[in-house]
Amino acid sequence: MTSATLAPDRPAGNRRSARGGLPLTRVSGLGLGVAMTWFSLLVLIPLAAVAVTAVEGGWSGFWRTVTNEQTAATLRLTVGTALLVTLVNIVMGTLIAWVLVRDRFFGKRALEVLIDVPFALPTIVAGLVLLSLYGPGSPLGVNIANTRIAVFLAFLFVTLPFIVRTVQPVLAELDPEVEEAAASLGANRYTTFRRIILPSLAPAIASGAALSFARAVGEYGSLVLLSGNLPMRTEVSSVRILSSIENDNVESAAAVAMVLLTVSLVVIVVLDVIQRRVRRRG
Prior knowledge:
Blueprint: H1 3-6, H2 26-54, H3 58-67, H4 69-102, H5 108-115, H6 117-120, H7 123-134, H8 148-173, H9 176-184, H10 189-217, H11 224-227, H12 237-246, H13 250-281
């Protein structure tokens, strides 16, 4: 008698699929259906509609739109500034999270609250705040209105909390005893950070960086007052999209939106690959 004959049959409800998951019950299947329907209505169908609208005039029309001198200038400014801001946030956001978790100092709770101010402020109010501080009537004597620095500053302001808030809880959960063990074995602080701390933080940093970049490329309200929206100089893609819609050129607006969406997806994939490699090397 073979071992297969001797093995009792498992109940159907306990059988696992080839990938190790349990089969869907009626309730879970209903939940999945509702979730996918909701996701499709809010995300997939609108994105598909934008993609279809972008190529209504054919691929040649799409290409003419995105390579138009003024449109291309807005894309270069938006994507380039968003990438630079994301790199700054990776460093400064991780540093701020480290200070909030590892250090004790007077005013720590106030700083915790202030970090979330860009989340709480309406973006147009943020733009007014930045204009008051760094515009023509600046009490600091710093006037960067109508310059590309204004675009950089606005992006930096609205994206500040993302990496801080994704890294902070992960850093708080790290076991200090692991770092102490590494130090007792002769590892210096740099080696401990690179081989133990950074691999654990990499997914959180990548997630925060992706959110930061995506928020920056779509930002509008915080920079319209300070940047001046000058064509070929400080005009960003969100302003260009609005201008196209106001001129009843929905196809051009959709084309620019598709470029931003594609760039954002590429950045997210690249960040995911980087964080996976960092974790493996760690």
